Amino acid sequence: MPPRKKEHGIKRESGSLVHFRPSGSATTVRRHSAVVPSVLTFAVIVASGGLLLMIEKGMLNSVQTPPPRANGKKVEYRLRNSDAAVDVESQIVQEIRNRTIRSMCGQKNMPHSVWSLSPLQRKTLLQHILVNDEHRFLYCYIPKVACSNWKRVLKVLSGALANVEVKVKMDHRADLVFLSDFPPEEIRHRLRHYYKFMFVREPMARLLSAYRNKFGEIEAYQRKYGAEIVRRYRKGYAKDKKIAGNDVTFTEFVRYLLDEDPERMNEHWMPIYNLCQPCAIEYDFIGSYERLESDAAYILDRVGAPQHVRFPERQTWYKPVTKETLHYYLCTVPQKFLKELLPKYILDFSLFGYPLPNTTTEYCRH
């Protein structure tokens, strides 16, 4: 085994280290403790949509995740705009997520290992964890959170692709290794010894991205899901067999989600919590779609990827979900439906520090 790399952090009561992502340069790491001031952390938590109040009122009867583990290496060579302020912000976000996940996952009714999950939950989880044995890491992918680009990176690392810019249609199964491919004892070994990470995204933005992509561009989804949604929720179409399914409204999509079991949803709109089970697995790093470039660069450095391997740039045809776009779509949905929808994704909001959306009548007038 190679010598264990030096870890930076502070001792927790349990004796394990609370790790922080190295900021700026190695000199900065040596001079300053990576500990985020507790007052600042508290202020950010309070600002994140009343998360503490939600916990106190028992709205989130669940969840916890582990601290990010850094090895003290610099990451500037992959970042175009190295900014210490951005790095500090990322540390704050990680600390908030770690504390929240620890407090919620520590509850008795939460799963504390992969093997305490139901068979269906475990199957879903293991089928969403990609394995790289050479660099000893596990990546739990979330559809609509840049997972196609991460799969490209994994294929480059395995030699299946020459580089991330190769113009080929993404095959989401070929040349990829899933944790579900292994027997239990090998799954346990990798979970215990490999670096584990995942990426998250604001829950409603992720849903809107899935809606616009699948029902606006993918004919197979229009036929399989769109046509059925129209029959169920649009008056006068219950018996229509010639529905194309290419004009599903966002409100119809939301009503469909309300009637779906989160554990049996299509992966593109299944809650992040159900896909990656952050209580059952102690992730070393939880990156953000909103800080994708810097967080991806950190991960590539942390797992020891060759320097020429970079995270792909967004395609020119990519249509981002802006705040204005999300505001427009959410405000087209009757409030009663949104109030029913949010509880299905409440763990995604609370665990990862996303504020609940403001969809009041006054807000939607603007």
From TrEMBL:
Signal peptide: none annotated. Keywords: Carbohydrate metabolism, Glycoprotein, Golgi apparatus, Membrane, Signal-anchor, Transferase, Transmembrane, Transmembrane helix. The chain crosses the membrane at residues 34-55. One of its GO terms (cellular component) is Golgi membrane. The keyword Hydrolase does not apply. One of its GO terms (biological process) is carbohydrate biosynthetic process. Its main location: Golgi. Its EC number is 2.8.2.-. GO terms for molecular function: sulfotransferase activity. It is an enzyme of class 2 (transferase). It is found in: Golgi apparatus membrane. It is a single-pass type II membrane protein. Belongs to the sulfotransferase 2 family. This is Carbohydrate sulfotransferase.
